[in-house]
Amino acid sequence: MRTTIRIDDALYRRAKEYAARSGSSVGEVIEDALRASLQPRRGSAAEGLPDLPVYGGSGTMPGVDIADNAALRDLMDQDEPLDALR
User: Fold this and answer.
1) Which of 59, 53, 65 is nearest to 86 (CA)?
2) DSSP sequence for 15-83
3) Is the pTM of this model over 0.70?
4) Residue 44: is its pLDDT beyond 60?
């Protein structure tokens, strides 16, 4: 399909240079970049998050909510040794 798009001059020059170095057309470079941009990103919300690995235990410590950034920061900023928190 043919279409007209507006591209920043400097960006177009970079795409044109890249196309020349790689032996492709500017259109092919733009198509490849658009395909890559539209691919779902690994670990994105659309894909779902992978399970976190658990080592030497059965999950987080009692009372720890990993969704609460402020509480996690407070817990990490405590001066207690890690073993005392288990």
Assistant:
1) 59
2) HHHHHHHHT--HHHHHHHHHHHHHSPPTT-TTT-PPPPP--SSSSSPTT--TT-HHHHHHHHHS-S-GG
3) no
4) no
